[in-house]
Write a structure and sequence with these properties.
mainly beta, 5-stranded antiparallel beta sheet, about 80 residues
């Protein structure tokens, strides 16, 4: 879903993934548990990944809903 102000994306993580990102991410864990850059995340957690963080390491089995100012490409 997108508009001129932001995009809303869903990302499923199963196992391990590394990726680069641009812009900020406003995240909600809508399913499962895992780790984002070493930080534990679980269902119903909300967090911000600032634009200054360009590399992500994702581990576990979880789904994120992500609001951002740029379109997200799923890994």
């Amino acid at each position: 879903i997108g508009s001129s102000e932001f995009y809303l994306s869903s990302m499923d993580v199963h196992g391990h993934a590394r990726m680069r990102k641009q812009s900020y991410w406003l995240c909600t864990v809508v399913k499962g548990t895992g780790r984002v850059n070493g930080h534990t995340v679980r269902f119903a957690d909300n967090f911000i990944i600032p634009a200054t963080v360009s590399r992500l390491e994702l581990r576990g089995n979880f789904t994120l809903m992500i609001s951002s100012e740029k379109r997200i490409i799923n890994v």
